[in-house]
């Protein structure tokens, strides 16, 4: 493991890249040591011929190691809400072609309707999915938060929860459940807000914005706590590569990259505010055992850390306030940014990014609901008894795509 070393009066202070493991060891001497033990009057280790290793107690370590429990709670909450969504969905009651019929009430919607193995869009709408029309015209702004706890299917849930465990537990062990919990929830809100300002049609669910917020927090934490890291450039390049790859995936169709970008930017700014650490000079003082005097450190934090803290807090307040005002006034940012739609989908010869509203002709006899796409002439019959307008629009979009 890479370490940062400092020699002081014959004492070597090693600060490992995993903060919290601070060991103070004597520097090996080139002279031959006498096997004779020193007397008890030898107070300092560098005067003791029989050098010993001094390890700081937990109370002396500058950074506390936290137990992770909010991330497991978040995972449990997401899984529980998915089961509740499936219970409310009750596919056998509304359709005759459910997937996994042996699951009974918890069986999935037909794969043609939901390939992710999950509930219908109308069920997700009932559970609190993000729908801009309801946020703007029915004053249901709470959907900006509720949607981050819902998932469209088993595959969607599994991918997000594995990512949350992989990213979140390490961060929570270092910074505690309160700060990481705030980064997760606020970043999810930021992702939902930016998504609602650019994507006006359909519904949106998922924790992707919150997860990108954790990635943004990791990046800003590395930048603002730069002095206490070893191998910092390698860590920075690795983290940037991971973020770029994940954002690049967002340019595929049917992926809400605006939620990813909004969550990432929110987490990046929150990291400068909530995940700040004392600089290395201050850490060095705390790591020294009694009897050794480290060079004085005037302040716990460097000037650039204070500047980043203030600027980030101002940008967060301004961004969330102006974003909410614009959303509640029904502003569509696509009308003010002609190229921004490329951030969420880049058209190629393999796929189209046409997000225009699809139009279908519908008819229903009993539980048989028939849709015909007016643009391509495709027709399909669904076994449905309870269907909402948003559900019809989703089925129409799938049929016309």
Automatic annotation (TrEMBL):
Membrane topology, record value: Multi-pass membrane protein
The entry's keywords: Hydrolase, Membrane, Protease, Serine protease, Transmembrane, Transmembrane helix
Domain Peptidase S54 rhomboid per the UniProt entry, residue ranges: 139-275
Pfam families: Rhomboid (PF01694)
Bias type Polar residues, positions: 27-49
Disordered: annotated span: 26-49
EC number: 3.4.21.105
Catalytic activity entry: Cleaves type-1 transmembrane domains using a catalytic dyad composed of serine and histidine that are contributed by different transmembrane domains
The keyword Hydrolase is annotated on this UniProt entry: yes
Gene Ontology process terms (BP): proteolysis
One term under GO cellular component: membrane
Residues that span the membrane, as ranges: 66-87, 148-169, 181-203, 209-226, 233-252, 258-276, 306-328
Location(s), subcellular: Membrane
Top-level taxon: Eukaryota
Listed GO MF terms: serine-type endopeptidase activity
Principal location: membrane
Protein function: Serine protease involved in intramembrane proteolysis.
Family per record: Belongs to the peptidase S54 family.
Name by which UniProt lists this protein: RHOMBOID-like protein
Origin species: Manihot esculenta
């Amino acid at each position: 493991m890479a370490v940062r070393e400092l020699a002081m009066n014959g004492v070597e202070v090693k600060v490992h890249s995993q903060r919290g493991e601070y060991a103070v060891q004597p520097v090996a001497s080139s002279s031959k040591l006498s096997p004779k033990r020193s007397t008890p009057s030898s107070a300092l280790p560098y005067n003791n011929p029989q050098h010993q290793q001094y390890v700081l107690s937990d109370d002396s370590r500058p950074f506390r190691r936290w137990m992770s429990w909010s991330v497991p709670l978040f995972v449990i909450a997401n899984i529980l809400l998915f089961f509740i969504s499936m219970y409310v969905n009750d596919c056998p009651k509304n359709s005759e072609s459910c997937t996994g019929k042996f699951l009974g009430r918890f069986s999935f919607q037909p794969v043609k309707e939901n390939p992710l193995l999950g509930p219908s869009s109308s069920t997700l709408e009932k559970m609190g999915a993000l729908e801009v029309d309801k946020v703007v015209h029915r004053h249901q702004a709470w959907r900006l938060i509720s949607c981050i706890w819902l998932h469209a299917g088993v595959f969607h849930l599994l991918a997000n929860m594995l990512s949350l465990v992989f990213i979140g537990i390490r961060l929570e062990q270092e910074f505690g459940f309160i700060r990481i919990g705030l980064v997760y929830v606020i970043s999810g809100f930021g992702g939902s807000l930016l998504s609602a300002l650019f994507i006006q049609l359909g519904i949106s669910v998922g924790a992707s914005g919150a997860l990108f917020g954790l990635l943004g927090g990791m990046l800003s934490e590395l930048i603002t706590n730069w002095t206490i890291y070893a191998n910092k450039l390698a860590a920075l390049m690795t983290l940037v590569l991971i973020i770029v790859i994940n954002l690049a995936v967002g340019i595929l169709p049917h992926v809400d990259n605006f939620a990813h970008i909004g969550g990432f930017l929110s987490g990046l700014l929150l990291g400068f505010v909530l995940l700040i650490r004392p600089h290395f000079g201050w850490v060095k003082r705390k790591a020294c055992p009694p009897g050794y005097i480290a060079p004085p450190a005037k302040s716990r934090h460097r000037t650039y850390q204070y500047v980043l803290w203030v600027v980030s807090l101002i940008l967060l307040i301004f961004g969330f306030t102006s974003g909410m005002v614009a959303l509640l006034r029904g502003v569509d940012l696509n009308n003010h940014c002609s190229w921004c739609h490329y951030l969420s989908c880049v058209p190629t010869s393999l796929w189209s990014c046409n997000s225009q509203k699809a139009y279908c002709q519908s008819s229903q006899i009993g539980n048989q609901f028939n849709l015909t796409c007016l643009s391509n002439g495709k027709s399909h019959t669904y076994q449905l008894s309870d269907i909402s307008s948003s559900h019809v629009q989703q089925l129409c979009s799938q049929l016309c795509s």
